[in-house]
Design the sequence.
């Protein structure tokens, strides 16, 4: 089970809108200064993802929830997104190479197969997303924000 904390935006009729922060791929490694992934993450936009998750328990905006999704679900999605265009690319490129016998035909077939595979993955993804087994679930719920209190006076007295 892959777990991630999210913040509740709203809750209505058993459906919670939650926001998950996009995290950089690394932030605590000893080689942060020379890491290419860290540099690339700084270039891209730091966005948030908003998703709907069923919740029978009433939730309050600002409340933290822990979401979980099965590893099998994530692998299925990754296979669909990455392997379908790749399979289309190689298959159609090989067919065009066999039929027309030129590298230009193979290149054209590769482009058509890659785009076709992408379109197939795009068409299949809503059907897969509708399955309950592939949906994230709420594993645990944190306290509402109005119940949390941080007492800074006691920590200042001890110093």
Sequence:
């Amino acid at each position: 089970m892959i777990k991630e904390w999210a913040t509740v935006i709203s809750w209505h009729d058993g459906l919670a809108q939650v926001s998950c922060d996009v995290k950089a791929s690394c932030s605590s490694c000893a080689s942060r200064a020379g890491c290419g992934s860290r540099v690339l993450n700084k270039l891209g936009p730091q966005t948030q993802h908003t998703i709907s998750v069923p919740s029978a328990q009433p939730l309050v905006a600002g409340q933290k929830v822990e979401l979980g999704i099965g590893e099998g679900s994530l692998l299925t999605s990754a296979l669909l997104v990455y392997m379908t265009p790749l399979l289309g690319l190689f298959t159609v490129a090989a067919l065009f190479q066999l039929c027309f016998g030129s590298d230009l035909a193979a290149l054209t077939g590769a482009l058509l197969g890659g785009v076709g595979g992408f379109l197939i993955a795009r068409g299949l993804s809503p059907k897969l997303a509708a399955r309950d087994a592939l949906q994230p679930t709420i594993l645990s719920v944190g306290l509402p924000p109005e119940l949390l209190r941080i007492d800074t006076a006691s920590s200042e007295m001890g110093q």
Summary: Residues 2-26+38-150 form one domain. The CA atoms of residues 3 and 68 lie 4 Å apart.
